[in-house]
Every structure is written in structure tokens, then in C-alpha cells.
Specification:
- By secondary structure, the protein is an alpha/beta fold.
- It contains 16 helices and 9 strands.
- It has helices at 29-38, 52-59, 67-73, 83-94, 110-113, 134-142, 161-171, 184-199, 201-216, 221-230, 232-250, 253-266, 269-283, 286-296, 300-310, 313-322; strands at residues 4-5, 19-23, 42-46, 63-65, 76-79, 103-106, 124-130, 149-155, 179-181.
- A 9-stranded mixed beta sheet has the order 1-9-8-7-6-5-2-3-4, with helices on both faces.
- Helix 8 runs parallel beside helix 9.
- It is globular and about 65 Å long.
Length: 329
């Protein structure tokens, strides 16, 4: 049965005399740093001098230094630089600062699960992953609220790894909503699968396929854009608010009937088989190996695909139509 923790389960005293080092003042980093500071915890930030993150952290009043200095001074080191940079940052600046009694934390398990970072066995290794983008982590905290998060313990050298991670989750506001216990393996594999098969890869390809089908059948690209992309937000917002049943109660009976009868024609057993293959590639490490090698080769496939997708007709048409909707900005 799923285990969920709340503020009453988190003892902030465990962080009272600790220094938290936030490695990377980006999407998640700025929110973690500010929320922890507002919770009365001492925070220092690691950013490369001269970068936008460095300037932002300085402007926010933080003690900002390089990763090596922060890792040396901090008791808890939270890795919040992008996945593809973490292994190098850890090896070059942090590994030799990992002394007994310290904690290495993550917001995603990729580098631990796939062995890109191998911490010494005498430190705690934990994860707190808020289930929303960084700006919302900060916004909700300011509003005296918070997003759910997941917690995992990879190594418990101190005997207090989970308790300290729960205190951290309370410090950034997530224990207000609830923190679900998982493992590095489960978080990493489900996160990658969700991104690839549904949330990013699945959705964007479904949108493009619908758009292309209508355009190739002779319909105006602008109308196809509205029907296959623009209105998606309306549906997603309804699902986000109350699940699929709530969404179906909120649309027309015609739309609901089409959902039940035509949806399975699009997302059929062939698609399910492809999803299973994607999951297997995540589980056996072949996707991780591919992505690691892609970054080592300076991202030739990634960059080519990025350029190609940016030039797709749906992006060209969309840019024009969005200029007619200033409220989107």
C-alpha cells in the first residue's frame, strides 16, 4: 500500500544546524533555495560565475560560489543541474568533498539508477522530486500551499536519511500536500516512460498526426491547428482538475461517445506493444546508454531533430495564430 507523509511526519529540527548546498539555480534550484531559506534553513548556492543563474542567485541575496566550494561547506548537497551535466559536475567538483555525515540529494534518479554517479557508501543518498515545475513550487509555497512530491532513499548511512529528506520536503512546501514514498528505480523508469510515451513524445506525435491527417485531406492548416493543438489545453485542464470522468462530463455527449468508440482505434494494441518496447528500453538501460552517448558526441541527433521539429508546418501556423491571442503571453 502506498505510504504518504505530511508535515506532521517531518521534523524540521533535523535541518536546523545544517547547511544546504543547492547545485544549480535553475528551474527547480531557485524554488528549492528560496523556499528552504524562507523556512529558516541556511542555504548556499552553486552556479558558474557570470551565468544567468549566478546573477539571479546573487540578486536574490544568496551566498553563491562554485560547486566545489559549496560541496565542501554544505552538509546536504542537492543536485539540481540538468541530468546530462550531473555526472561531470559530481566527478570534477563534488566527489572528493563527500565526507562521512554528508547527504547527497537528487530531484530525479537518472544518474544514480544508471550508475553515472557512484557515491561512497558512508553518506546518505536521497531524493525529493516535486511533481510540478520549479516556478510552481515557489508560487505554491508563497501562497501557503505546496505540490505533492515523491521521496526515495538509495543509501541510509546515518540511519536518519528518510527523516532528513522528509524535513527537506517540508522545507520546500511539499509535505503540505503529501509526499509519496518510492525508490530511485521506480521514479526513474516511470518518469522516463511518462515523458516518452505519453506526456511529451506521445502527445506531440498524436497532435502532429491529427494535424497532418486533416491538412492532407484538404482542410485549412489554421483550422487543423485549433482542433488538434489549441483546444488540447481545455481538455487537459479538465482532466487535471477532476480526472477523465470529470472531463467526459464536461464535454458534449458527441465528444464523449467519440472518446469511447474512436479513441481505442487510435491507441490500439499496436501502440500498447510499442509502449511496452519503450519501457523495456528504459528498464534494460539501452535508452540511458543512447542518451549518454548522444551527449558525449555533442548531440548530433538531438540537434538535427530539434531543428526539423521547429520547422514543421504546425509550428509555423501556430506562431501566426498565437500572435492573434496576446493573452497567451
Amino acid at each position: 500500500m502506498v505510504k504518504i507523509y505530511y508535515e506532521k511526519d517531518a521534523n524540521m529540527a533535523l535541518l536546523k544546524d545544517k547547511v544546504i548546498g543547492i547545485i544549480g539555480y535553475g528551474n527547480q534550484g531557485h524554488a528549492h533555495a528560496q523556499n528552504l531559506r524562507d523556512s529558516g534553513i541556511k542555504v548556499i548556492v552553486a552556479e558558474a560565475k557570470g551565468t544567468e543563474g549566478y546573477k539571479a542567485a546573487k540578486k536574490a541575496g544568496f551566498d553563491v560560489s562554485d560547486s566545489g566550494d559549496v560541496a565542501k561547506r554544505a552538509d546536504v548537497i542537492m543536485m539540481l543541474v540538468p541530468d546530462q551535466l550531473q555526472a561531470k559536475v559530481y566527478k570534477d567538483s563534488i566527489a572528493d568533498k563527500m565526507t562521512k555525515g554528508k547527504t547527497l540529494m537528487f530531484a530525479h534518479g537518472f544518474n544514480i539508477h544508471y550508475g553515472q554517479i557512484v557515491p561512497p557508501d558512508f553518506i546518505d543518498v536521497t531524493m525529493i522530486a516535486p511533481k510540478c515545475p520549479g516556478p510552481m513550487v515557489r508560487q505554491l509555497f508563497v501562497e501557503k500551499n505546496g505540490p505533492p512530491a515523491i521521496i526515495a532513499v538509495y543509501q541510509d548511512a546515518s540511519g536518519k536519511a528518510k527523516q532528513q529528506a522528509l524535513a527537506y520536503s517540508r522545507g520546500i512546501g511539499c509535505a503540505r500536500a503529501g509526499v509519496i514514498e518510492t525508490t530511485f528505480k521506480e521514479e526513474t523508469e516511470t518518469d522516463l516512460f511518462g515523458e516518452q510515451a505519453v506526456l511529451c513524445g506521445g502527445v506531440t506525435q498524436l497532435i502532429k498526426a491529427g494535424f497532418e491527417t486533416l491538412v492532407e485531406a484538404g482542410y485549412q492548416p489554421e483550422i487543423a491547428y485549433f482542433e488538434c493543438l489549441h483546444e488540447l489545453k481545455l481538455i487537459v485542464d479538465l482532466i487535471y482538475r477532476g480526472g477523465m470522468t470529470f472531463m467526459r462530463r464536461s464535454v458534449s455527449d458527441t465528444a464523449e461517445y467519440g472518446d469511447y468508440t474512436r479513441g481505442p482505434q487510435v491507441i490500439n494494441e499496436t501502440v500498447r506493444e510499442e509502449m511496452a518496447e519503450i519501457l523495456e528500453e528504459i528498464q534494460n538501460g539501452s535508452f540511458a546508454r543512447e542518451w549518454i552517448l548522444e551527449n558525449q558526441a555533442n548531440r548530433p541527433v538531438y540537434n538535427a531533430l530539434k531543428r526539423k521539429e521547429a520547422e514543421h508546418q504546425i509550428e509555423v501556423v501556430g506562431k501566426k495564430l498565437r500572435s492573434m491571442m496576446p493573452w497567451l503571453k
